[in-house]
């Protein structure tokens, strides 16, 4: 499930009803590139070593989600809800839609942000 361009629509893996029931789900060692998680309820979900390149997380509720060892390159996070997350070992290269506050939060919680044409922008360990 890949997209050749970020302008292409995300791939529908879940129905709208299913996206409201993903809280607490575990996704392990999968390739979900380009998946549409927009408006999904992912509270307390675990993504463990999942490829999530180019996914659409717009307006998704990611509070309490653990996103560990994942590649989220090129994903969108406009209006996504974050809080109580763990992002250890996850790469957020060239993502869109995160506020500056959310970018700092991702780094403080173990994620790495990479901006276009540059190296790691910020990596804070606590």
Could you describe the 3D structure shown?
The protein has 126 residues and is α/β, with parallel strands linked by helices. It has a single domain (32-126), classed as 3 Solenoid (Pectate Lyase C-like). It has helices at residues 16-19, 100-108, and strands at residues 26-28, 46-48, 66-68, 91-93, 112-114, 120-122. A three-stranded parallel beta sheet has the order 1-2-3, with no helix packed on it. The protein has a three-stranded mixed beta sheet with strand order 4-5-6, covered by helices on one side. Strand 4 (91-93), helix 2 (100-108) and strand 5 (112-114) form a beta-alpha-beta unit. The longest helix has 9 residues, at 100-108.
Cα end-to-end separation = 35 Å
CATH class: Mainly Beta
How many beta-strand segments?
6
Order of helices and strands: HEEEEHEE
Mean pLDDT: 88
What count of structural domains? 1
Number of helices: 2
* Low-confidence sequence ranges: 1-6, 118-126
The CATH architecture comes to 3 Solenoid
Task: Give a short overview.
With 126 residues, the chain is of the alpha/beta class.
Write the layout of secondary structure elements.
Blueprint: H1 16-19, E1 26-28, E2 46-48, E3 66-68, E4 91-93, H2 100-108, E5 112-114, E6 120-122
Characteristic terms for this protein:
single chain, 126 residues, alpha/beta, Pectate Lyase C-like, three-stranded parallel beta sheet, three-stranded mixed beta sheet, 2 helices, 6 strands, disordered N terminus, disordered C terminus
């Amino acid at each position: 499930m890949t997209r050749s361009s970020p302008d292409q629509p995300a791939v529908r893996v879940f129905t709208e009803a299913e996206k409201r029931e993903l809280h607490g789900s575990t996704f392990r060692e999968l390739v979900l590139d380009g998946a549409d998680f927009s408006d999904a309820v992912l509270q307390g979900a675990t993504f463990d070593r999942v490829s999530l390149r180019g996914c659409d997380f717009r307006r998704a509720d990611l509070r309490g989600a653990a996103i560990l060892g994942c590649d989220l390159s090129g994903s969108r996070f406009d209006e996504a809800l974050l809080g109580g997350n763990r992002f250890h070992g996850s790469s957020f290269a060239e993502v869109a839609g995160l506020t500056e506050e959310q970018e700092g939060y991702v780094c403080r919680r173990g994620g790495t942000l990479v901006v276009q044409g540059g190296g790691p922008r910020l990596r804070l360990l606590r």
